[in-house]
Structure formats: C-alpha cells, structure tokens
Amino acid sequence: MSAPVAIVTGGAGALGVAIATTLLDDGFRVALFDRRGAADAADRLARTGEAIGVEADVSDEESVRAAVERVDTTWGRVDALVNNAGIEPAHSLEGMELGTWQATLDVNLTGPALMIKHCVPMWRRQGGGRVVSIGSRVWLGGGWTPAYSASKAGLVGLTRTACRELGPLGVTVNVVAPSFLHTAFNAQKAEAAFLDSYVGRFAEASPLGRLVEPVDVANAVAFLVSDRARNITGEVLHVAAGTQLAPAVQ
Prior knowledge:
Belongs to the short-chain dehydrogenases/reductases (SDR) family. The protein is of the alpha/beta class.
C-alpha cells in the first residue's frame, strides 16, 4: 500500500512545519498549503520524506478547489487534513473595523469549512479520512482578540457538526486546542504587548512548569490522524501543559 497523504494548511509557519515534520516521520506524504513560502518549506522538508508546497489561500474557494485538485492529481488521495492556517490581528470590539473581523473569520473558520468541503469527494471515494483543526483554549472563555476568539469557538461548532455528517463516510473530525504556543514570533508579540513577564506567567501557571511547544501540538495531531484514534471524533484535545490561567489570558 502506498504511503498516506496529509494536507497541512498554514504549512510554511513554525507550527505547520512542526506538524508536517512529525507526519513525514510517521510515513505520510505531505502537501503544505500556504499563501506564500509553501514551496520553500516543502523543499526544506523533502529530505525527510515526500513533500510538496502548494500556493493556496484558504479563504478563497477557487484557490482551495485548485489546491486540493493538485493533491488529487499528484497522489490521488487525502488521508488527513490538518486545518492549521490562522490569523490573529489585534483589536478591541470598540475599535474593530469590520474588515478585520471578516478577514479573521474568513481564514480561521471559513477556511477549514472550505477545505473539508473540497476533500469530501476523495474521502467518499477512498472510504474515510481524518480532519484535525488547530483551535485554541480561548474557545472556552474568550481571549484578548474578539474575532480570533469567536473564530476558534466557531471551529468547535463546525467540528461537532462535521463529525456527524462525515461519520458515515468513515471520517473523524477533531480539534487540537493549545494554550499559548511558545514560538519566537508569539514570544516577541506577547512581550511587546504585555512586558517580559507575560510569557513566564504561562510556565508558572502550569503544573509542569513549562510552555507548550509546536512539537507538542504536532504529536497530538499525529495521534488523532492515526488508527489509534479511529473511534475519537467530535472532540477537543487541549494541549495546555495543565495551564489553569483564566481563559481571557490564553
């Protein structure tokens, strides 16, 4: 049997690369979707397995259709879809521009819906598949960015609806919800907004005394797309190192 195929959206970012690397290590062929940088990321990963980069904007249906068709033409199947693409523009409700709200929902919520929609024909044809969407703990009680929090709460609703519709096709649909993810970009952003002590608060609030790294999320994704998770669907797996900070600061 040929190696399984995974699509990872937002594939050029730190988390996307971590997820793709872990799936390649597990024997997947991986298509990295991103608006820019996907080809370069795929080239870097190709030494560890079979990877391609596909330019795609998940908020644009024609772009999604064309990108999924390329994977179908190249490999003829999609076994795992990882909806990782996301944006988080800072704003308050009072100062929010409608365009900011709409753009965030377009990428973070409409994007996963479009990706699922255009993969369904392959899952129907091949008799099953896996969907894992990257959420956030803010879905529990909000965060500091209204549009981002709303999009991640909506992602849980989409997941629990999709698992009912797609279950008869043999497709599982789940969410991995990290707390504050320790990347160079996130650390810089948090420190600029909340002073140097902010990142440390997440580690101090964890019983494990550490932050969540991209590889932690990647390992959770790898589990949920594996046969070991064949009867897990419609669930939210929190990867938060036991953090108990109020949801408003996660």
